[in-house]
Every structure is written in C-alpha cells, then in structure tokens.
Specification:
- The protein is mainly α.
- It has helices at about 15-25, 30-55, 60-70, 75-90, 95-115, 125-145, 145-155.
- Helix 5 (about 95-115) packs antiparallel against helix 6 (about 125-145).
- The radius of gyration is 21 Å and the shape is elongated.
Amino acid sequence: MKQTRNETAVITTTARVTAARLAIREARPRRLTSILLWAAQIPLAAIFVTVAVPKLTGSHQMVQEFGLIGAGQWLRYFVGTAELAGAIGLLTPWLAGLAAAGLAADMAGATVINATVLHSTTFGINVWLTLPLCAACALLVYARRQQIKGLWAAIRR
C-alpha cells in the first residue's frame, strides 16, 4: 500500500533570503579567478571615481564637453552619478557583476557619443579612453555572469 499525504510547504521571508544568499554564494568564482577579478575591479573603481567627480562638481571641461553634446547639463549629473554608483558597486562583492554591466553600457554610450557627436572636437579623442574601459567592463560582466544569474534568481524569489 502506498501512503500519500498532501503537504503544504510554507515559504517564509527568512527562507527566501537564505535561499537567495545561497544562490549568490554558489555563483562565486574560484579563488584564483576571484583574486584576478578583484585585481581588475579595484583599479577600475578608482578610474570611475576619478572620472565621475569632475562631472558632479562641475569642472569647466566637463561642462564644456556636455554642452557640445547638446543634451543639457542634466546628462552630466546623470552620467556622473551612474559612474560613481558603478564604482561603489564594483567594490561591493554581490553587486560587482551588475555594476560592471551598468558601467559597460555607460562606456558603450560614451564611446558612441565620442565617435559620432564629438568626433571633430577636442573631446573626440576620448573614444580611445572609453573603448578600453567598455571592453574591460564587458570582460568583468562575462567573468561574473554566474553571479549576475544568481543575483537575478535571488531577486525573482
């Protein structure tokens, strides 16, 4: 004789948080890979902080550059805030992959703007700065793709 029972599973908030932490923890890369990623993330975060601060403080050069873009100075504040948040995210272990994705998108946009809108100005040369930063962030996204999937699974729960 088979016995069957109807059981009802109760999932509490604590169980969801624990499951989310486990999913993120399982997505961590191996030790050597993690060390190499952090060795890349820390200087990248420093670069993005040094690039974001002049945008947020209203450096004359940044005001002039964003004036040539023609979208208004709100874009300067938006990009500066996004870059600063991305730099902080790169230094946060569970947000590093997502922050790298945001910074890669930011640098892709900056590369396109520098190559098309600012190509005939003195700021057009910045494409050779934004393109390698975009590539570095894209490599970080690829290396941390399992972490991003784990974070997404944790958010969906």
